[in-house]
Amino acid sequence: MTYDVDAIRKDFPILSRTVNGKPLVYLDNGASAQKPRVVIDAISDFYANEYANVHRGLHTLSGIATDKYEAVRETIRAFLNAKAEEEIIFTTGSTMGFNLIAYGWAMENLKEGDEILLSVMEHHANIVPWHFLRERMGVKLRWVDVALDGSLDPRTVINAIGPDTKLIALTHLSNVLGTVVDIAPIAAEARKRGIATAIDGSQAAVHMPVDVQALGCDFYCITGHKLYGPSASGAVYIRADRQAEMRPFMGGGDMIRTVAKDEITYNDPPHKFEAGTPGIAQMIGLGVALDYMTALGMENIAAHEAQLAAYAQDRLTGLNWLNVQGHAPGKAAIFSFTMEGAGHAHDISTVLDQKGVAVRAGHHCCQPLMVHFDVPATARASFGLYNTTDEVDALIDALETCHRLFA
Domain named Aminotransferase class V: which ranges (predicted)? Predict the structure, then answer.
């Protein structure tokens, strides 16, 4: 199919608005992507015409809500090419996904002195839960550095595996550098050694096709608000054999079969790991968002964004007063940078906002990576399926204005 970005942009109402008198150029997709009309309408229609709680209700509305909600599990299974729907656990996003892995699997299977292997470019969602285990159980965190260009060779990770390594937790695509990590050979080696692999797919699932069976990982987290879906939606893929090693993370409704004064029996997966009234509308909205992306074609989205990335890379590197962090081959359309003369990344972001260009500024929940590159913070322009080369030009124009101000 022809990828018609102008037609796609019309699907996103917010892209037609202005900011500070300028057309909005939204380049903060790495934090949260905008929502197409079909997602907005699906959520609104559900609340207006179909809302009820899911499961157990025998009335008509509950049946409709349950069917729509549970259908999303198959949507996510197909999106990630998991083997079975039961391997898809609904979450509020990747942060909850990693906490589920930490409390449900790691606390049951690791002990004092065991080691978790991480890269320095992990998001805090894939760091802080492991620090909890370090503080509370005495597990050790071992860190792998990225190369100067921001790349991470799989062999570097494999060579860092030690006799006490029990879990490898890595990002599939860096939210700061755009670096794509070749997960499959790492997961294959880990499997040979009986080591679990937990992968942060928060960014990768947005920008390229993902096949968890081909990757060979044990856990894979995605977050809905980056996938053009609602906030507080997401999922974690957990291989069936790893589920068998887990205990529930949260207790409450839906995750039980029976509750008595002196005993409890748990539900079967996936509901065993999903306690309480869920974000029903959020998950329905996520399902619609994934259907929207699938209809466009993940290969088509990836090809469009690759063209954007190449064009943006060329234009940004032409600014000799701009320091772009990370030039790994095949990187996604995510660019973090500092500017000579600018006091802080926040200053860059503020000036760009006056030109209608929305970028993020700060450490991007990746403080170990900031330390590795010896910068306190960066500004980040992150592109999505609806962005254009004209918006790259608008970014460059805004950066040049910013440079003139600070120079």
Answer: 25-395
- Asked if residues 330 and 368 have their Cβ atoms less than 8 Å apart, the reply is no
Contacts of 349 (CB under 8 A, 6+ apart): 359, 360, 361, 379
Residue pair 383/337 in contact (Cβ under 8 Å)? The answer is no
Domains of the chain: 5-30+297-406 (3.90.1150.10), 41-294 (3.40.640.10)
- What is residue 257's predicted lDDT score, i.e. its pLDDT? 95
Q: Are strands 322-325 and 140-144 parallel, antiparallel or unpaired?
A: unpaired
**How do residues 153-204 score in pLDDT, each as one tens digit?**
999 999 999 999 999 999 999 999 999 999 999 999 999 999 999 999 999 9
Of 217, 221, 365, 366, the active-site residue reads: 365
Q: What is the C-alpha separation between 99 and 161, in angstroms, rounded?
A: 23
Long-range contacts formed by 10-16: CB under 8 A, 24+ apart: 11/36, 11/37, 11/38, 11/292, 11/386, 12/36, 12/37, 12/386, 13/37, 13/40, 15/386
CB 356 within 8 A of CB 22: yes
**pLDDT by residue (tens digit) across 340-355?**
888 789 999 999 999 9
Name the band, by pLDDT with cuts 50, 70 and 90, for residue 2.
Answer: confident
**pLDDT reported for residue 1:** 62
> Over pLDDT 90: what percentage of the chain?
97
∠ Cα 380 173 328 (to 5°): 75
pLDDT digits (tens, 9 = 90+) for 112-121: 999 999 999 9
E strands, 263-312, are: 264-266
Q: What DSSP assignment string belongs to 85-141?
A: GGGEEEESSHHHHHHHIIIIIIHHH--TT-EEEEETT--GGGTHHHHHHHHHH--EE
- Name the DSSP letter for residue 156: H
Residue type, 48: A
In contact, 385 and 304? CB cutoff 8 Å? yes
**Mean pLDDT along residues 242-256:** 95
365 has catalytic annotation: yes
CB atoms within 10 A of CB 299: 11
pLDDT tens profile 35-94: 999 999 999 999 999 999 999 888 999 999 999 999 999 999 999 999 999 999 999 999
Do residues 275 and 254 lie in contact, with contact meaning Cβ atoms separated by under 8 Å?
yes
Sign of CA dihedral 85, 91, 96, 100: negative
